[in-house]
Every structure is written in C-alpha cells, then in structure tokens.
Amino acid sequence: DESGNGNNGTVNGAALTTDRFGAANSAYSFDGVNSYIIGNANTFPVGDRSISLWFRSNNIGVGALGRQVLGYGGQTCGKSWLMIMDNAGSPNGNNSFEVNSHCNIFSVTSNYSSIPNGSWHNWVATTSIAGTRFYIDGTLVLDTPVFVNSAVAANTNYIFGGFPNHNGIGVILNDPNNTKWNGELDDITVWNRVLTQNEITQLYTGSPCVNYQIITVTDTLIINANLSGINPVTFQNTIKVYPNPSSSQITIDFGANFNTLAGYTMRIQNAVGQTVYTTGVTQQQFTSNLNTWTGNGIYFVYLIDAQGNTIDVKKIILQ
Questions:
Q1: What is the mean pLDDT of each successive set of 10 residues along the chain, which is 319 residues long?
Q2: Does a cis peptide bond (omega within 30 degrees of 0) precede residue 232?
Q3: 205 — phi, psi (to 5°)?
Q4: Could you tell me which of 48, 168, 182, 217 has the fewest CB atoms within 10 Å of its CB?
Q5: Distance between CA 249 and CA 182 in Å, rounded?
C-alpha cells in the first residue's frame, strides 16, 4: 500500500508480471482459479468514493456471476462493494462492467461489443449522493442517480481478484461459479471522494506507454533536450533529477548549458494530474522539498519548451 494507510495485502497465488509500461514485476497476474490478494479494508470508504484500476483480461466468458475484480464488505445487502466484469448475470446482459452492493446492481456494456481481452484498459467507478458513474478509458459510460452505499463492518477485508465471503473476513474458496479474476491488475487506487472528469481523464491519458523511462532504485533521472547532432545523437542539454526514488528532497540540475533553455518550464504532477512543483529554467540547479507534495507514489516530470510543447515526460518515485 503506497498511500501510507497500511492496507498492505497478502498475495495468494497471484504472480508478479509486466505492467502496461513494460516494466517487469510491476503488476499482478491472476489465474482465474485460486489466486487473489487479500488485505484489511477497515479504512476503505463507506460513503463517497472513487476506485480506479487498470486491467487486462484473459477470459470473461466463464462463470455465471462473471469475474470478480475487486470487492470488500462481504455479501450482505448494503455492506458490500463489488466490481465485476460480468458475462451473464447483469441486467444489461453479457459482457458488462458491474458494481454490485447486493441491494443495487448497476452495469453497462460500455462502448465495446464485449469486454476487451488482451490489452490494458482503465475502469473508474464513483459513487456519492449525486449518483454512481462508470468511466472506461476516461469516458463516462454510465451515470445513474443512485448512491451505492456500503456500511463496512469492523475487521472487513478487501479482495483483489476474488469474491468476499459473507462476513467479509475472507475470500470464497473452491467457488463453483468460478468467479475469480483471470488476467492482470495494476494501479488499484481508492479515494474517499468523487474524482472530477479532469482527474479521471488524467488517470487514463496522463500515463501513456511511450516516452517514459522506468526507474530503478539506483537511477538518476536523465532528460535530454535540444538535439544538436544525429550521427552520433548529441544534445545541448542533459538534465538530471536525483535521487530517484527519493524520500525527502530532489535536486534538478539543468546542466552547464541551462541558458539555452530560456523560457522552458519543469512541471511535476501526481498520478491524478495535480501539479506539485513547477519552476522556470533560470539557474542551473534547484532543490524541492518533498513534504509539500501529495504523499508517496509515482509522479511525472514534464519538460515544456517556451512554446508550451512537452519535450519529454519521465517518471519519478516518492517513497
């Protein structure tokens, strides 16, 4: 759990796999039979909430109850929150995204003829007194005025990739309906508020699979700017951001030729698109104190030229 709330999970059979950025051991794969991740859900929201996750499905077409992606609160009416990819049981029929509280069931077939298999997609579900909404790949596909409440009891667990049991303390094993998730999950994030459309768009579009450098624990982040030669490739500027990962502060070094970056801006955003730091290139070196940022996690470093064009985007980790 990178939120600092201590909701660490226990992995049962799920295996580390490559994420949507191509980084090894950075997402989890579930076999659809007996793999899941379980953890304590006592601090999970029971009122207003938003839940975002990235998925890549292998098989939705088995099981009368569909595949259980995420759940907490057990199976009691008004005390559950289940996110399901349903092949048969939803009101909208086959191949639907569904939120189920055992009192209210909302589902949508979205813009797909079937739930997409074999590629990464983002699903965001929100609920509040204003209603319940689904977003697939940043696009609103369901908007209903009903609030899906869930009064989670004490000692309730969350389940990624499986179906909670009736008291919410464990996961249903040997499920005859074969409801466990078959595919990969990544970047599961829970908020106790409703995200805006702009934030949801940023979750989907702010992390493309291109132009990112995957950072190891010993890296200094390197950004090259102002191409000056192509044989061999050379640049006027090599910008360094270090240390990465970091826990207290980062240093941005624009290099000895920083004066060639007049009018450029360095901007750092969190995973939902909020700017946590920005500076113009007016001197060679800057230092930013990380206690003014929005907590541990992944941040994105943008280099923007004088015309407002994004020259490069890189990933940095605050731990």
A1: 82 92 88 90 87 88 71 80 72 68 73 68 92 90 84 78 81 74 92 90 66 40 58 62 76 82 88 87 84 80 86 79
A2: yes
A3: -90, -15
A4: 217
A5: 40
**Alpha-carbon gap, residue 202 to 266, rounded angstroms:** 18
Sign of the torsion formed by the C-alpha atoms of 51, 151, 71 and 83: negative
Dmax over Cα atoms in the chain, in whole Å? Answer: 67
CA angle 14, 17, 19 (to 5 degrees): 125
AA letter at 230:
I
Report how far Cα 147 is from the mean position of its chain's Cα atoms. 23
* Cα–Cα distance, 205 to 96 (Å, whole number): 23
Q: Please state the separation of Cα 266 from the chain's center in Å.
A: 24
Structure tokens at 88: 């048969």
